[in-house]
Sequence to fold (348 residues):
Amino acid sequence: MTWIVGATAFNGLVCVADVQATFEYIDKSRKPRYFNCVRKLHKVYQNLYIGFSGDIRSGLLMIERLQAQMETTYGTNELFDIEGQLSILQAHLVKTYREFNPNKDPQLDLMFFWLKQEGKSLFYEPACMRFIAPHFGTSGIGPLQINQSGSGKHSAEFQALVDFLSGRPPREDLREKIFGNISVIPSMWTASKIRTLLVKEGSNVSHAGVSKTFLSVVAELGWNKTVSGATHERVMNALQGFGFEKWQEKTRADTLHMYSFDLNEFIAKIAELVDKDPEKLNEIVEAIHAFKAEENLTPLCELPDFNETLHHHDAENISISNLCFRWSDMEEFMIRNGIRLGECTATA
Fold:
């Protein structure tokens, strides 16, 4: 059991996963055992991370195989992408899955998230796609979207978080419980804010098989490097009240920094300034010109780093170094804790 969420934002991508493994015994008179012990997010190639939920053995073995294969398959300057190769990748995933599971079909989702250059564009764009065993059909791809996997998606509170991030209104009682009196549901998020909302609010949810500690990975494109902070702030201040507004609102565990821009309102108010306040008009025009003169889009053509963070819950003592990274690590962990795989299933 697990809760894993992958999302693309205008400025990059983020993936968040809990770290708990569930050992459910075939003998149903024995209670399941839960351990915060497994890494569910893995860097597989320089521009690709994969998260998994479901059968731990299958997930860790397949990810380890993919890591080894990609290191030998791609050239020095090549990056991962699936454009024109989706069917080839799916066939390869099916073949590898069958190698590790010749007689069974354990549940497994693999969530790929990567940065790509579309067509001849030099700008990097985020992408997220979920592959679902045993046939590895896909769910989701696109520049702005959110995808989730694992048993956590059956939790009403976890689903409310994903609905909110997707721009859908959450269930009324949960909207009030989690999101209080927030006036509007945002339609666009930064990758960092998606992560913060998920880990802060997620740690307040109790759901069997899902830890309150989360591992996250964020890769943010260089939008904040296209102009200096001073120039950015200058244009934002100049536009305040002229179709552009900024304010703060609070969820149960987080503060949202909200922004809105209405182009039609901006055009109408700028037209009014021509006769009523030419000095203010000049201030806005100069701020925009300064922004455009300084703007440098080169950072959007550079592959950003993938930054990992372990978000500890106070009640859970975990370190990244102690999380099982490979299936051999998990086998050793099970031996130390008196768990026999033949007696139970190990799921994430």
The CA atoms of residues 217 and 308 lie 4 Å apart.
